[in-house]
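Input record, target 12 of the design panel.
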């Protein structure tokens, strides 16, 4: 049974930092590129960052480039998203999934809410 469990979100002031974690189980984590996605109210879900299997290549949305860093620990089956210099427009529910994303049951977890506000 596939499970992706996101954590680490919260309320933070503009300019602050958060580190998100995504614990994966039920599939061969080390076989896949992984991604972080986000969905803001009234908007479609978008890709924020992705990382290759070995972690040797990453890509970022232009809106987060230079502020966010994606990483992974294959031994622990965890994907991280370090978010610095947060802006109000980063407010969203953040999810992890394979890249490209898989829509079968379990791959979209509950997400973790990030709210950037003073």
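The sequence produced for target 12 reads:
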């Amino acid at each position: 049974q596939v499970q992706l469990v996101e954590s680490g979100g919260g309320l933070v002031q503009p300019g602050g930092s958060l580190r998100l974690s995504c614990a994966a189980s039920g599939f061969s984590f080390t076989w896949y590129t992984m991604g972080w996605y986000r969905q803001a109210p009234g908007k479609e879900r978008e890709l924020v960052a992705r990382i290759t299997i070995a972690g040797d290549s990453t890509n970022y949305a232009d809106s987060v480039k230079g502020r966010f860093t994606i990483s992974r620990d294959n031994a622990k089956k965890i994907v991280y998203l370090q978010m610095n210099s947060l802006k109000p427009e980063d407010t969203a529910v953040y999810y992890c999934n394979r890249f490209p994303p898989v829509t079968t049951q379990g791959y979209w977890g509950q997400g973790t809410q990030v709210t950037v506000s003073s």
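The chain has a mean pLDDT of 97.
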